[in-house]
Amino acid sequence: MPIEMLPLTDASMNECAPVIRTDFTDEEAWQAIRRTIATPSGEGFLANVEYFHDPAFQGLTPEQILALVPDEPQCALLVVVDAVAVASPEMPLLCVDLWAERGRTVRVIATELWGIENNLSIANMDFEEFADAADEDGIFRGF
Fold first, then answer.
1. Rg of the chain over CA atoms, in angstroms?
2. Which of 40, 68, 83, 95 is 20 to 30 A away from residue 109, measured at CA?
3. Going by DSSP bridges, is the β-strand pair 17-21/77-81 parallel, antiparallel, or unpaired?
4. What percentage of the chain reaches a pLDDT higher than 90?
5. Are 69 and 77 in contact (CB under 8 A)?
6. Could you give the CA distance from residue 7 to residue 73 in angstroms, rounded to a whole number?
7. Which of the pair, 89 or 70, is modelled with greater confidence?
């Protein structure tokens, strides 16, 4: 069944970033990514996320996913677990800005997702600060 719209207008989504699985080739890698996201940082911070792992998302591009996002979502970003994230030991997740520069992307290693999610959800920092701090390969690995 095709997905018509992501449910991102509920007020509860203000405190959760949707993590959307688009690569279903490696169940073990998916579980490792979920465990990594669910592990608190050294300072005890944790990314607040909601997982979407419907096979209907298989192979969708960030642009196709963005088309499923309502015009005024409650959450500041969404996270895509694609083939790149699944294939790399660093698990570079693709973060997509939903507010300031809708559609702008940056990759973040899974162990640093909490920093982006936490800071955007409380409007402490802007998406561009993380995107601009990415390494030359386009991946944010922390400050």
1. 14
2. 68
3. parallel
4. 80
5. no
6. 9
7. 89
Closest by alpha carbon to 107, among 130, 74, 75?
130
Provide the CA 26 distance to its chain's centre, in angstroms.
18
- CA atoms in the 13 A half-sphere facing the CB of 9: 7
Token pair listed for 71? 């015009």
Q: Which two tokens stand for residue 55?
A: 């096979």
Please, are residues 81 and 93 in contact by the beta-carbon 8 Å criterion?
yes
Burial of 9 (0-12, 13-18, 19+ CB in 10 A): middle
For 38, the token pair is 């669910």
Q: Which domains does the chain have, with CATH numbers?
A: 12-131 (3.40.50.800)
Q: Which helix (H) or strand (E) holds 21?
A: strand 17-21
Q: Is the pTM of this model over 0.70?
A: yes
Q: How many CA atoms lie within 13 A of 24 on its CB side?
A: 9
Which amino acid is present at 118? N
Cα 1 from Cα 3, distance rounded (Å): 7
> Which residues make Cβ contacts (< 8 Å) with residue 32, sequence separation at least 6?
91
